[in-house]
Fold this sequence. Notes:
Subcellular location: Golgi apparatus membrane
GO molecular function: alpha-1,4-N-acetylgalactosaminyltransferase activity
InterPro entries: A1-4-GlycosylTfrase_dom, Glycosyltransf_32, GlycoTrfase_DXD_sugar-bd_CS, Nucleotide-diphossugar_trans
GO cellular component, one term: Golgi membrane
Structural class: alpha/beta
CATH topology of the largest domain: Spore Coat Polysaccharide Biosynthesis Protein SpsA, Chain A
Strand content: 5-15%
Distance between the termini: 79 Å
Oligomer: single chain
Keywords: Glycosyltransferase, Golgi apparatus, Membrane, Transferase
Amino acid sequence: xxxxxxxxxxxxxxxxxxxxxxxxxxSDEDSLDLGWLIxxxxxxxxxxxxxxxxxxxxxxxxxxxxxxxxxxxxxxxxHHNGTFLLNSxxxxxxxxxxxxxxxxxxxxxxxxxxxxxxxxxxxxxxxSYPNVRIEHIDMSKYFIGTPLENWYKQGRLKTSRxxxxxxxxxxxxxxxxxxxxxxxxxDVVILKSFNGLTNFxxxxxxxxxxxGFLAFNYGHPLIHLAMLDLKYKFKGWRWGNNGPGVIxxxxxRYCRVQEVSKMTKQRCGGVEVMxxxxxxxxxxxxxxxxxxxxQSDVDWVMKTVNQSIAIHVWNFHSASxxxxxxxxxxxxxxxxxxxxxxYATQRTIF
Length: 350
């Protein structure tokens, strides 16, 4: 009997050790997270994306999307009144992409069903560009044939505590997997053409890769790695895990280095990790300078972003900050130049 209990004890200890080893192996490089051991249930916030299940008469035809030639934006909130509407800053982001990339289709993809597009003046101005399209995507079909097909059918997206944000994360990688091309956040202004640029990401600083700007050719193995990361490491209770976390982990595997500073184009098989100056020259901690009227601040911002491909205005922090039409605020100066049609529709606050 004593021998039996000793053997049982040793087996339990061995099992515990194996579990710990598995946890260490599969957990993120920068944290030990036990949550993956538990299959999470539907989160209370799942109602925020319930509209995705509502019927829509027409949706995006995958065959209409030119591979490697499209710029994608996503607006993932639910539009309960049946009318699709971007706010003026979102419309500015889309216009800027269309303006400086006239040879590329600019698609705003929307999982929420809608009956019509708003006729507010800034939307009419935006849709005057022949290369801008606003399309519904049928979430029940969009993942078919991708590595996330069963993942989505199992309802894993509904486990998210930030479902609209994580939907955008999921869609950006899935869309680049399906079509190639360019993904861009909606809180940006594009300043230069993407011509000649492909297979790139943007570093937010010396230690972090961001997911606000992504570009990959169709079939690129790094995007496939990102899709597998989402499939096996999606964590609905961690806000940044499924966006910047995905591309960072995929790059570490693809480039076989841990430090962002060592992710050179040569080491990463042609993938370029662009420096912060390309897209994030003004870091999130300094977002308020985009809205300053102090001339020294204005001069500093305009000089800092002079060589940037785009600016990111950090909507999470800046959404409630007024930009005044006709002012010298850096955001206004850039918007008036790079989204002139949308800007011209605004009277006082942009």
